[in-house]
# Entry
Amino acid sequence: MAVRFRTDAEELLVSLAEATLEKEKWYRIVRIDAVDGHTTRLMELGLVEGTIFKLANIAPFGDPIHIQIRGSSICVRSQEAQHVYIEATD
Amino acid sequence: MASTSSQQLRTVRVALVGNPNSGKSSLFNALTGASQKVGNYPGVTVEKVSGRRRLGDAELIIDDLPGIYSLTPQSADERAAVDALRDPKSAPDVLVYVVDAANLERNLYLLHQLIPLRIPMVLALTMTDTLEGVDGTQAAKRLERSTGIPTVSVVSHKKSGIDDLSAKILEVAAAGPEAVPLTPQQLAIMESLTERLARAGFEVSMAEVRSLLRGENELLADSLLRTPELYEAVANARSELLLTESANSAPAARYEWAEKVAREVELGEAATRRSLITKRIDAVLTHSFWGLVIFVLLMYGVFQSLYTLATPLMDLIDGTMAWLGESVSETFATIPWLQSLVVDGVIAGVGAVLVFLPQIIILFFFIAILEGTGYMARAAFLMDRLFSWCGLNGRAFIPLLSSYACAIPGIMSARVMPDEKSRLATILIAPMMSCSARLPVYLLFIGAFIEPLYGPGWAGFALFAMHFVGLIVAIPVALLITRRLLKGSSPPFILELPSYQWPKWKEVGLTMFFRARVFVVSAGTIILAMSVVIWALLYFPRSEAQIASYEREFAALEVAGEAVGEMESFVDARLVENSILGTVGHTLAPVFYPAGFDWRLTTSILAAFPARELAVSSLGIIFSLGGDQNEESPDLRRALKSATWPDGSPLLTVASATAMMVFFALCCQCMATLAVIKRETNSWKWPTFVFVYMTVLAYVAAVVIFQLLRWVGL
# Structure
């Protein structure tokens, strides 16, 4: 596997796994890396670049999280969420 | 392919495809009613459900394919569905794609992938009844216009649209290749060509343009020859069509199309309003604290009522079978072996099957409601963290908790897990949960050896601990199974939480009925056959001469003043001791010495292999007290306490009694469990695996516990 260094711009990206989300606020997906079948599935469920979503709830013990996206409710484990980069919308 | 013949029914093979939770199964039920057949896809444990529907001289053979989100399968279930569509041999005549109006964009995503499969297609638009202010028929028309694929609006539980859909399926089947849907790009090319022709005065339909582009409409082609620029437009369209073969297939591009179509279908705010109700409920039910509280209360309610409702029914079945045995026993009184075969083999075997039905039916009643309302996914979400670290997921909760009552409904309920790998792992550890049939063994040994010595406090703790032994041992077993034994990475646990709905009672009823039928038909026959075999092992060899010699033996003991109890019980004990099973018990006994068991305990363990419910009564028989002993019988407790090794040392101590309980906690002494695992995994490999690993674990644990406790002086 090729070693790839993160550029400065990528350093600023916040992943869904590490972000502290607020309820009732909209966030936008800025990038999602299809690293494996799991993340591919997330994209197939509509988590593609530019899509906005909202946090609904966090499960007991902190994982997984429940988000609302494209009118559906989806829950995402942190293992997958680390490949989804997000930003807050204004 | 559809075929016509004067005598024969014209058969049309239909595949029902859709996202999970899209209303696909409800539609399947509405289409096929009770004509459903459950089988398996070849080589996998994925259940294949199909049904039939008669329509005049035609018959639809409908396969309900497992729910999929895309044509990139991540689990065995999804692969079975995708293979059924991709393999030309199994490809259906007509594909019915179920489109959930409440999740339009995501459902259109898969449609975008299905179109290039070149299978004649009909869309069934569902869930419009749950969207306030949306006219399903109008929405279906707009979807049809936007996608170019025939669309019918259906409300499955009201049977509305079902006849229209069936008629449309026949229509599309008859049209054959003409009904193969066009990709969005192809559709756009043909639309613009149709317009172009219309502007030049050629009012032709899309279908005609389509056949023109395929080079099959010579009439139209000839008339266009006179206008060279039109002829050129057709040639251009043809080459453009060729280019669309390499269309962009990135998820983002597909979603762009999905968004466009969804806009054209104009469901407006209805879907948002509906999801608002779901959001409000979810604010509580998936809340990290309140969600958990409600979950615990709900599960307590479910399992409490399962227990209270099933127990009297099970007692009733037991009582009825016992009565039946007694009533027919007179008929065969002249032939003792036949009498015993009918009463102790066949009738007891039928009873052993039927006794599980109340729990199965009641558990599936609750599961159907939990699934039907959409709560099951929330329960899985809340519990996921507890299971994910050992390779399972939140959906394992219901099967494993059910297994605490009984592994049979527990293993059957593992079907709430859509992915094969976690389902299999859950099935394989479910028999480790301490089911209610182990309780009498715990109560007997705790009552006889722990309570008198250490008081009720420790007795309570021991009972509690016994219920945890299986769970604790199951964790490393689960890890080993998911990490080492089952190959392939686990499929993503990315769970969709469907919108809340009221349960549909008819579907709840169908679920209960089909589960009960599947159990009786496929597992029941195995259980019955096994109980006859076990009966024979305990009954033979047996002869009048043998019985007479045991009776003389008892008389001699009586003379010597050493006889204990009834002669009949003594003879029964001697017969069991010398039966095939008893002989095996004697032979195997040395193996169990390190666990502190003699041949009597070993034989009672062997006799309990068909069903651990038999453990206490077989101890009663072996200790010459007769088969009607229960865990509270003072005679049996006394007999166990006074039993000795040949050298006079006590047979059962705290150490060997605990080893006995641990053995029962971990051992797979239940042929019904094995029969159900065979049924659910469609292979003898997995029941054999469960039997071997649990028996080995039980033996090793019993030896370790016995040696450890003896070493500390108990």
In short: Chain B touches chain A at residues 69-70, 72, 74, 102-106, 109, 251-252, 255, 271-272, 275, 278-279, 282-283, 286-289, 291-292, 381-382, 384-386, 388, 489, 491-499 (CB under 8 Å). Chain B has a mean pLDDT of 86. The first strand of chain B starts at residue 10 and ends at 18. The CA atoms of residues 228 and 234 of chain B lie 10 Å apart.
